[in-house]
Amino acid sequence: MTSAIPRTSRRFSWSPAARLAASVGLLAYFAAVIVPPLAGPPPASDLAMAALQPLRPLVGSLFLGHGYRFFAPNPGPGHSIQWTMQMADGSTRQGSIPDRNADWPRLLYHRRFMISEKIAAFVPPPDAPADVRQQSRGDWQPLVKDVAGHLLHRYGGAQVTLQMTEHYLPDPEELLRSERGEAEQGRDAVTPLGTYALAGANTP
Predict the structure, then answer these.
(1) 192-201 pLDDT, tens digit each
(2) Strand 79-87 vs strand 189-197: parallel, antiparallel, or unpaired?
(3) 120 Cβ partners below 8 Å, 6+ apart?
(4) Which positions ≥6 away from 177 have C-beta within 8 Å?
């Protein structure tokens, strides 16, 4: 004698409208993941930039605007900010943003590396025309002031001088020459960013 097992579960089925909504949502999410790396950082195609425009609200809300092409397949030169601080007792203190020896864990180094790269995107090269360099100050100087203010508050300095260094990126042949001791030296580009001190309101 056998007893019947009651059917307590019922297979869930999607309605056509639900399938369509889920498919559109998945496609929009995949597009929001794939398109931002194609559209930035430059160089980027006009097609990728046009495809990014309707996705900007979704990309911004989900924080998907990552520049993966910054690292591969063809990364550009890296940037760092060197600073020299005059202390109240007359001594000096120096540092770099980022600092691979002091910024630990590695994620902290990466975050500070993004600071220097963000500022570098607004700073023209030292050989740029004077009017271009002057017009760009309104873009990068507020960011540099924030960095200077943070450094002065952190270390208790009287004033700090900053400069941007674009580290030369050698090609494969130059790397081979460097192994033989034949590489050229001193090819980094240095751009002064100014000297800052805390004002009465404790802002540089």
Answers:
(1) 999 999 875 4
(2) unpaired
(3) 79, 164, 166
(4) 183
